[in-house]
Task: structure prediction
Amino acid sequence: MSEITRPENMPKTAMIMAAGFGTRMRPLTDSMPKPLVPVLGKPLIDYSMDLLVESGVGEAVVNSHYLAEMLEGYLRQRKNTPHIIISREDGILETGGGIKNALKLFDSEEFFVVNSDVICLSGKTPALLRLWQHWDGAKMDALLLLHKVEDAIGYDGAGDFFIETDGSLRRRLTSEKAPFVFTGVQVISRRLFTDSPEGAFSLNVLYNRNLVRIGALVHDGNWLHVGSESELRQAETWLEKPV
Result:
């Protein structure tokens, strides 16, 4: 990947979502939080950290809950990492509630969000930089990085979205299969949380209420879904010998 120039106005902070129980990864997650499950000897969360580092994002807010002490202990001893701020949750707040609970830790209007149970490998341009290059704050409250279902590694779901001819998003109906899956990587504006629920809630609640202000960008690199032990093995096989 060639040397990049980071725009001055690009967010310097990202949130890494790491509080969940990782139930589909059991029994591996009986004794460790899912973000610490190793993929080729490297904890899952480190792949998310790599995504920040390559784009020059210098601060990571990480939410924690399940086996929080173990996760936080690992993060404290990391070297060559973005500055880490922990957002401990007394109870699981889900994706929307978890981010809302951490808003006080961000000092900018926009910030990146990265799930810790996926491996997103950039194409020619670092993924977060590319997202920011396509960000339009006048029209968007969030910009989601999507990936073609047919090219996703370790993913066998029905997809999440259609991209219409005008560029707008449409969620798939229950009976449909959509061509694009959400990668768990995005840019979000604080505006998305205006009049949002209290406590635990999904980000989908906020997307769905005003989908016209949710943008989409198709990922130009590789994306590996690591939700279960079998998907973990698929990811390791692919990473050892990409196809």
